[in-house]
Amino acid sequence: MEKVKGKRVKIYLALGIASLSFCIWLFPSNVVELIAEHRHVLLGRYSVEWFSILFFLTPILWLVAYALWASMKLSGKQVAFRVAALVFSVILATLAIHVLSQLIRKPRYIEKQVKFRKNWPGERVHDVVRHRPPNSFYKIRYTDAPPTARSYPDPAAGYPTVDVTLTTDVRGYRNLTSLEQYDIVTMGDSFTEGSRVSDDEPWPVLLGKKLNRSVYNLGISGGRPDYYLNTFRAFGLDLKPKVAIFMIYEGNDFKGVRLEKGSSNPGQPLDKRIVKAIKYSPVVIGFKTGFIKHLGPINADGPVRGAEILSWMPVAVPPGPGARYYAFKPKRLMRLYWTECEFRQSFGWTSTVKVFKMIKDLCDRETIRLVFAYAPSKPHVVMPLVKENISPEHLHGFASLKKRGLPAPKEFKKKLYDRLDSQENVLREFCQSQGVGFVSATAALQSLAARGRQVYYTYDQHWTPLGHVAVAEELSRYFRSTIPSGA
Question: How far apart are CA 473 and CA 487, in angstroms?
């Protein structure tokens, strides 16, 4: 009797677990939020992350159900052996694919530690620098279109398709010249390196032509302030520049930098390093790419409840005929939602300003003139130009996809517009207090956008070639009045 009851319990459990493996697919992701954040939607219902969990959890539940079912006919050892053999085979195959992929894959970027000859600060330290593979040439065709199959209810046409050439030098940075010494060295992330524009279009190249000065570009996509400092130490100082321009992008460069005591190396917790290793594993990327390619287009045009809060996106600038269109994510908008006081007290500013002071001290020691160039995010430039054309309710709903507990729509809109310049003002004041040059590209980009000139791509956060022209012109105006003609 007890045996029969035991078998029934196992049958019920097996059936229950098998049923659960189907029921978990009934819970979709927040599709409106995924669209707003430009994240891929699979089968019209799931984020890539949630689908991946369901995809791999389902066979695990089936395996558990099978183990319970098989335990009625086989001994516990036999079931355990079969399950363990299957799991071990899958893990072994995954590891083999991962190792093989790492061996044959050519990296897009290289990060390494460099020991410097000069002591800075104190004893010799190791620092991380980031660059592309040296002496490489890339030809890229970029189409400015929604990055996901499921997108805004009425997506506008983006900037015309561009063919981009990208050339790296012996150091792995984007330069077409090779001199022993340069007048100006530029530091920054993709806005300095020149994402989505060809070799002759980034603002450092244009600035050199306008000033008739030699300029070396040490910008690199994915950089951050501590990388800028490390790279400047490693490569910039040897070029003996008279001027160093550090471009600070407000969209990413104020996230905060964790420095280990006594070193400029960024300290990253072990759990984050593990998550990063898994996230960028060739096996994980392969599965993700396959899911997006084959499952992203399915049901991509289906109705989405709540999508009306995205009806103003991409936003038309200027409103009316001849407008250009700009799309951005809620998180980009909400990174501007600081009061100056809140921003000064944030970890993002207090940790980053330590790096800025180290940059300033280094330039003072080497008698290099330091200038910070401010790169505004797309919403910082665009939002003031469409203030009267966005309803408080739509703006509030859009922002609420990123942050809960916002004030009422009208109050939120007023606060947001009052705070758009907070980060720029704080950095400007810091530069003034430290005797550091400061140039902002915000007004120049805004002026062109207001006249219907497209300065950012529609579906990408970076500047178009015209945006780089505007930035180079703003910097050249600053330097024409401050660099003697014979210097």
Answer: 20
Closest CA to 222 of 276, 161, 290: 276
342/418 Cα distance (integer angstroms)? 13
* Predicted pLDDT of residue 101: 52
Rounded CA-CA distance 486/477 in Å is 17
Q: Would you tell me which CATH number, out of the four given (3.40.50.1110, 3.40.50.970, 1.10.10.10, 1.20.950.20), belongs to the domain 115-254+303-480?
A: 3.40.50.1110
Sign, CA dihedral 221-51-38-329, equals: negative
Contact 444, 373 (CB under 8 A): no
Domain boundaries, the chain: 2-104, 115-254+303-480
Closest CA to 189 of 143, 131, 116, 104: 131
The tokens for 57 are 């959890």
**DSSP states of 36-98:** HTT--EETTTEEHHHHHHHHHHHHHHHHHHHHHHHTTTS-HHHHHHHHHHHHHHHHHHHHHHH
**pLDDT per position as a tens digit, 322-379:** 899 999 999 999 999 999 999 999 999 999 999 999 999 999 999 999 999 999 999 9
210 φ/ψ angles, rounded to the nearest 5 degrees: -65, -35
Rounded distance, CA 217 to CA 194, Å? 10
Q: How many Å apart are CA 200 and CA 190, to the nearest integer?
A: 15
Confidence of residue 59 (pLDDT cuts 50, 70, 90): confident
pLDDT tens-digit series, residues 450-462: 999 999 999 999 9
Which residues, listed in sequence order, are joined to residue 215 by a DSSP beta bridge? 184
Model confidence band, residue 321 (pLDDT cutoffs 50, 70, 90): confident
Cα dihedral 269→275→280→285 (10° resolution): -170
